[in-house]
Amino acid sequence: MVKRAHWLLLRNPANLAEHEQVRLSEVLQANQSLMTVYVMKEQLKARWNAPTAWAWRRAWKQWLDHARESGIPALMHFAKCLRPYWRGILSRVRWPMHTGLLEGINNRLIAESCGWFGVQRVAKSLGIRPFCRVWQVVDSCPDLVNGSC
């Protein structure tokens, strides 16, 4: 029953047709562990839109506690593996940027500091990496997005 509902579990519930929503609810009612994991997945997804960093941190700790208390080994393992990344996730909540904006910032930093990619070509030919990690620069200067840094 669950194998055939695999794509229903992965899709956004808002994009499901009415008959798919009925099928999804049947599958979730048939398996309590699956229902718990599905609800936890939706809760984790909702955490990305927290209004403040402190609200996110409180909700994050609550989500981790629920995952630990669930008793579902796979969910507990996932929470344990995700836990060390909370600082990076918090940075994303504080300064919501998509990868296109980060790529633009990265290219601008490289272009300005490396003389329009000249140093990058030389470093690549020598087998070294010439520039730092972008998220370290963004974390140290949140106004970089506005161009005031």
Protein architecture, described:
- This protein is mainly α.
- The protein folds into three domains: 1-30, no CATH class; 43-94, no CATH class; 99-146, no CATH class.
- The chain is 68% helix and 0% strand.
- The longest helix is centred in the middle third of the chain and has 17 residues, at 53-69.
- It starts with 5 loop residues before the first helix and ends in a 9-residue tail after the last helix.
- Mean pLDDT is 76; it is low at 132-140.
Rg, rounded, reads 21 Å
List the secondary-structure elements in sequence, H or E: HHHHHHHHH
Q: Major sheet: size, sense and barrel closure? A: none
How far apart are the termini? Answer: 55 Å
When the domains are counted, the total is 3
**What percent strand?**
under 5%
Question: In short, what is this structure?
Answer:
This protein has 9 helices and no strands. The protein has helices at residues 6-10, 18-30, 32-47, 53-69, 73-82, 86-94, 99-113, 118-126, 134-140.
